[in-house]
Protein 1
Amino acid sequence: MGQRNIQSDIKKLYAQLEKLDRSECRNIRNSKEEDFRIVTCFETFFQSLRNKTEHEDARSLTDSGFLLKGKFNIKNEEGQWESQSIDGDSLLIRAMSIKRESEPRSETLGKVIECIIKDCPELIFFQKLKLVNGKVKETGVTPIHIAIFQGDQYLLKKMAQSLDSEEDTKKQKKSLTEKCVDDDRLKGTIMTAGTLLGIASLMFNKTIFKVILRYFESEIDVTDNKKDNIIHSLIKYASIKPDKMDNIVKMVNFIVHCDFITKEDKEEDNAVDEYSNYFAKHEWKLRNQVKKLLLIKNKEHLTPLQLAAKRKQFSIFEILIQHEIYSSHKSNDGLYHQNSYDITDVETIPVPNEEKGSHDEDIKREHHESVLEFVVRHDTINAFRFTNITPVKEVIKAKWKRYRRYFRGWLVCHLIYMILLSVAAAYRSEIIESVPGTRSVTYVNLVSEDFFVTSVSIMGVIVASLYISIEIIRIKMSRFTSKSSTEAIKRIKSFFSQYSKNMFRFYFVLFSLLLIIDFVFALITAKEKFNKYENYCLIFSVLIGWYLVLFFVQVFEIFSFYTVLIQRVITDMFMFGLLMGLFLLPFSIAMFMVMQGAETDSEDFNNIPKTMVKMFTIMLGIGEFNVLFKAREPVLAIIVFVLFVLLTTLLLLNALIAVMSNSCTDLMANHAGFVATKMHHRLQKLSIIIFLEGFLPDKCCKTVGKVKEISLSYDKQVIYKCKRRIYTNESVHEKTDKDVDAPVEPVQLTDYKITIPSQEFLETINQHIAETLESRVVKAKKRKASNRKSQNTLQKRIEISDIEQSRCKQCDNKESNLFQSRIEVIETTN
């Protein structure tokens, strides 16, 4: 009986909340007596619960059966009673979910919420419930999630204080930070972040972010059900809401650079002290957690840096890779700079790790997704940006330095074989005789009879076997098998991107199959068991083999742009061919019908295939059109012809030319200061690196950098420990004219309040500037005068030294003459 009474009282409370909801929605204020009665009703109920020794009556507040199936009665606008469902909401969730048209929340509603928080803190833990296939499921939405969504830091602090007031709830408070929202109805919203800190991050509310860290003692590296941390969530949210990219970038900067530790909110000194004391005490712990945040992987085995590259979020990628955990610069003497980069996520070869896993991440040796493999699937502008980042650029450079000699050797071997194959094809096409009226022919040089032709054919089988083996090894290794998107169309588009070599893989396999089939049929033909084979496979193998030369020459800078352009044009041509077929087929059928019974000996319109070929030549402007006038209805034939020319030659062909011109312009354009030809060349080298490492074993692959073990610790406890690949290089800093005479960037004052000074202040400043300039002019004049005196003194000294020098020469001459005269005197005396 007591249980029924308590449920009846709870239903009355839900009815009171419904009244408040209606008044809030209509912005209608109740009378003071009515507001006082509502607040008193809640206070009396919870006071009675506290006074009771048994707590079984309070279980109805969180009883799932009662909350999901319970209903309460309330009068509608017409004064009639109607039934309302509780719908799985606790009293606190229902009170906080009341819609507010006016800000702030009404005083009555605020008192009711504070009463529930203070007197029944257990409801803070309670999640919203829902029925799924007849089973009760927790959605993960707690009152704290709702308060974060509403941006109500006051209620958040009240909840934290209420939980700290009791020992039991204080111990359970930390578990709230790990609870995640799990409701399919909230996908695509900020609630997809799951955790309290993640939702605060997606709200871009820095104050709420600090409240969760300070009062709920949340860990920065907390993850949701998908093991996504807050940076993962921000990157995924950027893909869903690209219009909010500016706010997302600011929030990433705020988290990564630990701006929440610094005193940046100077408007309220009390608020600054409230957070700064706590953050100053735990500064190193928080900073190490941020570093760990950038290194842990989610369920997709992606770090935030890899996820940013996969989702094409360059702005976030640039912030992350410039963080101290990925990039550090040291300068001992100011001349030599030592740059260290963590390229673990950039390198295609994973770091060997003996650990089987931990609670933070699942370490799988065979699964590693590199930034480089994502870049080759990007569009042009994004690919340019990512490959211009220093660590990415250095890895490509180091790898290509190793692979280029082998690749060029492969090019030489392929050219030699194609020359031999072309010569052998020419020899095999020579005919002795052909039977008139039949397709039977007799060739001069048959396989198994001519040594050169046979040798080239056997060589072709070896080459084909090698190419097919490479593809089998690639599929078995599955080194680069990541999905760039969940949508099938986007995956197909990225699979055949202009920098991906998947089309060339198809051409290599087709080339190999044609060589093998040609060899088999050629042997059968030589034994006269099958005399109708006319080297069909050989014809197409020669064409495809020479086309594959493009695969090799694309690594040369002079050809890199043209190879990209040809691949783009082939894609455009494919789409154009599909559209052209929609026009060519119906017009060919129409022309075939019109030309039946025509008075002509031409066989161009005998059947539909021939008619399609004739219409195609008409589209290209080749062939004669006089045959159209010999139709049974010449006017009808001319009408069909004119419509076909207008829709194909004038419309579709010109559209194709425009598309191809646009493709060329897009590829040649220098995006964001990048030189297009140089960037295409770098991307082509990267695509070849990915192609080669797709089938090479780890021992043959070039690995950049050295493996080092890093550990993050706080208070003598290791927070995170793993092996990373570090790349180090040294550079010489040279001070250029650009560094000396760098232009001063203009200061933007749009975000600041400008105070106009008084007239007296301006006069004082002007007088001070005038006196300063006058004193400087006087000093300059004195300096010039002293310089002139010093120059005159120096000139006199130079003249004196010249005189002394000339005098010395005269004296020397006199002394020499005197010495000569003395010698003459001595000689005469003798």
Note: The mean pLDDT is 77.
Protein 2
Amino acid sequence: MDSVKMDSFLIKEEFPDLVLVPIRVEFSGLASLPVKQELCETKSDSSQPVSEIKAEHNELEIPQTELEFPQTELELPRTKELENVVDWLLKTPFGTLEHAEKVRIKSEGRPRPQINSVQDDAGRSRSFRCQWYERVDWLTGSAVTNCLYCWPCLLFNGFVTWTKSGYNDFKNMDRSVKRHSKSKEHVSAEVRLKLLGQSRVEHVVDEGARIQVAKHNETVRRNRAILKRLIDATTYLGRQELAFRGQDSTADSLNKGNYGELTEVIAHYDELLATHIEQSAVFTGMSEPIQNDLISSISLSVLEEIKKEINAAPFFAWQVDEMTDIGCRSQVSIIVRYVDEIGTLQERFLGLFDLTGVRDGQSVFKLVSTAMSEFDFKEKLVAQAYDGATVMPSELNRLQAKVREVAPSAVFTHCCAHHLNLVLSQGAKFITQARVFFATLGGFSSFFSKSSKRVDLLEETSSTATRWDFTSRVVGTVANNYTKLLETFSRVVNSEGMDDDTVGAASGFIRTLEDFDFVFMLFTFNQVFSDTGAAFDIIQQKAMDVTFCKNRIETLLHSAEEKRSEEAFNKIYEAAASLTEDPADRHLRKRCRQEGAHRDVKQQYRTLYHSVLNNLLLQIHHRYASLEETRFLELLNPEKFATMKSAFPDEALGCLNKGYGRFFEMDRLKTELQVFYWDRELHGANSSISDLLQSFKRSGLDRAMHQLYKLMCLAATVGTTSCGVDRTFSCLERLKSYARNTMGQERFKNLAVLSIEKGIVKALEKNPCWYDGVIDHFATPRERRADFIYK
């Protein structure tokens, strides 16, 4: 080191009795640095003390270096500035940081914050003991999310539960910790954390390795940025239910399909994407497999978001329905219903599943239980509905019984969004004659819905309004307008302005209306549907008054039983014979008929008549057999709040305790209900369940009256009154049309998720971290020709 030069004198020579105190000066690359040296007061042999001596030097002569030193530091959260670095890492992936930044985070160690108590599914408070940090050397946590995380897995992308969503099931803490410690992903993350920051041989020997890693990460950053543009194009087409591919997707094609054309439009305003399209030869992102993988990755991210919401909800219900698509495949949809964290009733779509060839209860149970295996349905499932699922009534009863074996609280309910007559007609199709009848009946609505000219002819003939919107109303429309329809079809046949297809169809309908079998089935179903339709309309309006609904169903069953009499059968038979030809007379005219042929023919129709009635009665009984179990809904019937203020509904509360008592603190709930009934400001006038949920959430009453709020969530979840399944199948018809009927099942299912849950997709697009999750899903299942994972 160069010596320090003094401007005026040498200290040692001038003051020989002083003891110089050595100082140490560290340099950080500066060319010059002002220095002040202070000499301490000491005793000498001289009688005169030296009070203070200072030596100053204007410059230190230090050789300058050519190395450039950074002037800024990494802005990482420190313990003094932020309570927990875990929250920062949840938003900023560890893999995107520079090597020095990673080493610095490792050196600071894992945070060990105090975690607040959380409530389990039963409402009990579960606390976390900090001694766990000493027992488990990889455990960390966040005081913001009140969740625990695995420190190595958080840094190196381990299990989602221990890295993204967090773990807060303190009841099963010991078992979960042991299971995670043995996992392959955790061991791998621990090894990578131990080696982080240590001198790696290839880096010491060859500086080129470090440069190669930096180059790789820069390529990954660029590839991920390009993939974000392709994700935006995919989500747009999926939300709008537009086709992706065209007939010719080559570079010279004038129409590369919506996906290719939309990507080129984006490239006009994005230099990065434009350069990629022009220069890339390895990964273009335009091929059909890449499109399928992008659709699948986005769909998976949406389903993960739904799973988070369901896991946070106290209860959920599922609804299964079936429909045949344009490719003659039986598609089963699964809808999940629950109340989310902000008090909004949600109905989420989980996918379409191919159930072609199987209709028994065991097959449907296996499909649904497999699809719901990732959800805690054994503990949280409180209702199940299968309206429209093509299983026999006896199989339907067996199906819901099998579900209750594993999920005891899953009461079977009828969805009020499905018209009862429509469900009954689907169940009756297992009778061969009924299936033929409804298939023929469907042609009437199709005939009039395809031409306004045909409708005008019908309206000219009939003065009453005709309803063709679904099967039950078509039965009543045809039965009540039988003569008018015959006149209309005759006018179509005799009209010179009608085309050949219309005339041929009208001629066929005339023969149908003159056929005894068709008219007999028409009048048989109409006499039942007229009663069930009226009963359903009343039950739909009085869904919260379970006692009233139960009495109405009993009246309906009694009325249907009366129609099984011989007098009722003869009335239907004679009415059909008066409009057509009696089949008994037709048989008598044939030769070689035995004595009693007249009785044999009529007996066949009597047997058919009773088969239809028995089928309908069995379906009604099965669908409303569990109605008594939902009597607890009367606790929240706004029409009875005034009455229940003076006479508490103990029977309804007992029903709740019997079916769902394990979810509630019954004494506390009864007290909260009594306060709720007495205070009109709490419930207002005729407030619906949805309104009450929102009101309680806004005012904070969900915490003050938490048991009552949980009851509202249960009532909203069990009372399946929405039309999510109808929304699902309207989407099915748009996605899989005549022009797109060769689509694979997996692509079809994923596109349906993007279309139906477009609200979730739009919300996720506003979060930049969501794109990283989609890209991770895209990159991990298989080896890609382009790099998307940081080193």
Note: Residues 208-239 form the longest helix (32 residues).
